[in-house]
Automatic annotation (TrEMBL):
This is Subunit of TIM23 translocase complex. The chain crosses the membrane at residues 27-48, 60-81. It comes from the Eukaryota. Pfam families: Romo1 (PF10247). The gene is MGR2. Belongs to the MGR2 family. GO terms for cellular component: TIM23 mitochondrial import inner membrane translocase complex. It comes from Malassezia caprae.
Length: 115
């Protein structure tokens, strides 16, 4: 008779992103959201109040660019703040949760990017 099979969970951690890459990714995502919101809000404002002295394209561009700059700025800062964490505390919590459920946990070696 053979021994029962035990499941082993292996967690492989992805390399950490730099702060500048997080900042850039947040800025791009926020700018794209801001362009969309600026297009919708600016288009509605132009339909409601008229294009103004700059014309339709100038007014719409101003709404879109100001909204993209605002959203991009706050999203870049928010993405850096949101993704800051201590990897050791996350690993410890992950292992403790699986051990509490009665599973064996094997940790894969971390690959650190050379600077």
């Amino acid at each position: 008779m053979s021994a029962p099979n035990q499941q082993i969970y292996v967690q492989q951690a992805a390399p950490q992103q730099s702060v500048m890459s997080k900042l850039g990714m947040g800025a791009v995502m926020g700018s794209l959201v801001g362009l969309t919101i600026g297009f919708i809000g600016g288009g509605f404002q132009i339909l409601r109040g008229g294009p103004g002295p700059r014309g339709v394209m100038g007014t719409l561009a101003q709404y879109m660019l100001s909204s993209a700059a605002t959203f991009g700025f706050f999203m870049s800062i928010g993405s850096v703040i949101r993704t800051e964490s201590l990897p050791s505390s996350n690993d410890a919590q992950w292992r403790a949760a699986y051990r509490a459920a009665g599973h064996r946990v094997a940790m894969a070696p971390r690959m650190h990017a050379s600077s």
